[in-house]
UniProtKB/TrEMBL annotation:
Protein family membership: Belongs to the small heat shock protein (HSP20) family.
Gene3D superfamilies: 2.60.40.790
Domain SHSP: 26-137
PROSITE patterns membership: SHSP
Origin superkingdom: Bacteria
Protein's name according to its UniProt entry: SHSP domain-containing protein
The species this protein was found in: Amycolatopsis taiwanensis
InterPro entries attached to this UniProt entry: A-crystallin/Hsp20_dom, HSP20-like_chaperone, Small_HSP
Pfam families named among the record's database cross-references: HSP20
């Protein structure tokens, strides 16, 4: 049973192509948001790398089991600066994750520390294993599913 599903690969490819080539058709540097995702006990944990992003610019939204993370990193230099090298991605970062039915999207928690956004999504109660009593022969037995 999948707990977390990534976006449709073809839609993701279209998005990356637009980011890479931009509206003018000339290559630009894509705004990336690398992530790690894993299950830890009774919750699913996702870490997003967002170094240099102000916590105020991070927007986390859940709608119809789709988690959307948006953030913006602005340049640290002023308009009159004579920029020699500009390799760090800046602008708007966005990532969508489709949450499986086994996750409790109503109780998501998020924190931001040292450039890493951590999102914790509890496993839904109905998705947790439980014992089922079986009646028969005058005595009840417990079975683990």
């Amino acid at each position: 049973m999948a707990m977390l599903m990534r976006t449709d690969p073809f839609r993701e490819l279209d998005r990356l192509t637009q980011q890479f080539f931009g509206a003018t058709g000339t290559p630009t540097r894509p705004a990336v948001m690398p992530m790690d995702a894993y299950r830890s006990g009774e919750e699913f944990v996702v870490h997003f790398d967002l170094p240099g992003v102000s916590p105020d610019s991070i927007d986390l939204d859940v709608e119809r089991n789709v988690l959307t993370v948006k953030a913006e990193r602005s340049p640290e230099y002023g308009e009159g600066a004579d920029v020699q090298v500009a390799e760090r991605p800046r602008g708007v970062f966005s990532r969508q994750l489709f949450l499986g039915e086994s996750l409790d999207a109503e109780h998501i928690k998020a924190s931001y520390d040292a450039g890493v956004l951590t999102v914790r999504i509890p496993i839904a109660e109905q998705a947790k294993p439980r014992r089922i009593a079986i009646q028969g022969g005058g005595e009840a037995k417990q079975i683990n599913p």
